[in-house]
Amino acid sequence: MTAPPLSENRRAARLRALYPYLLLAGSQLCWAGNWVVGRAVRAEIPPLALAFWRWTIAALVLAPFALPRLRNEGATLRRSWVVLVLIGVSGAGFFQAMIYIGLRYTEALNSTMMYSASPLFIMLIAALMGVERVSARQIAGMAVSFCGILVILNRGDFSHLRAFHFNPGDLLILLAMPAWGFYCVLLSRRPRELDGVAVLFLISTIGALALAPFYAIESAFVPAPPLDGATLATLLYVGLVASVAAYILWNRGLALVGPNRAGFTNHLLPAFTVVLAVGLLGETLRPFHIVGIATILAGVWLATSARARA
To answer: Residue 194 carries which DSSP code?
Structure first.
């Protein structure tokens, strides 16, 4: 006996509703690996070198696919070049450079605590720019998710909160958050004539060009990393997985649900970071990790799910 058409339609509607969040979750998983890698290679690869080569590799990989699509878009580029430059400088240039620099001075868990504040900046900037309004449900979801962050960071012992203090790395990570908020909001203003691949190529190219002079200054004072297999593997990961794959997933998901709802999935990043630390670094999964991850996911669901209306 076949299911009624109405049930099939409901299942299809649920899958369509879930699809953007699967894309956003995939991007967070890629970026969680990027934070772990950035912390792991802090002594081998200088931060601006890592950021510059990340976007240079991404631009080179995307060029064969993007350049033909941009061949007849001269008028669009001239009309929207300011927005595109702001997107590339904020999202690819400044944000990622500050993250890699901050990871030299603070642990990955502390950095993800700073990153968990990014939905605040996305909501604030979106409201200031008149893109979206903030709902009480979104604020409640952010609060619940942030409690999960605190559970993980404080190992289930909230007495540690009284001794918590900001170090320079924490402040650098926090300083990068407004740039990410501008990127997420401005991405909704990108020219619709350009598809995701073309936009990502432009973002990567602009980010690499913005970082180039600072990378040159860094290279004058910091020795270049050894050109060995580990360095190449790191650069390929941050260039292909954490940049090309992650940003395609993020940009598509962001376009489908808007900056506010997409921003709340940023709370998945510390959850994925814990999973990667257990699987790749051999750290022990403890009860407070499970409680924290469950709380984070509950907050993400609360913030991103909409009540069905007839």
So the answer is: S
Nearest to 104 by CA among 144, 155, 48, 175: 48
The token pair that represents 25 in the structure block: 């979750």
**Alpha-helical segments (H) within the chain:** 5-40, 47-70, 74-87, 95-102, 108-115, 118-128, 136-153, 168-187, 196-221, 229-236, 246-257, 259-264, 268-281, 287-304
**CA 97 to CA 168: how far, in whole Å?**
15
* pLDDT at 234 (0 to 100): 92
- The pTM for the full model equals 0.77
Q: Where are the domains of the chain?
A: 24-304
> Which residues fall within 8 angstroms of residue 101, CB to CB, at 6 or more apart?
47, 48, 169, 172
Structure tokens at 89: 């400088």
DSSP 8-state secondary structure symbol assigned to residue 265: G
Determine the Cα–Cα distance for residues 20 and 282; give it in Å rounded to an integer.
32
User: What letter represents residue 298's amino acid?
Assistant: A
Mean pLDDT of 274-297: 72
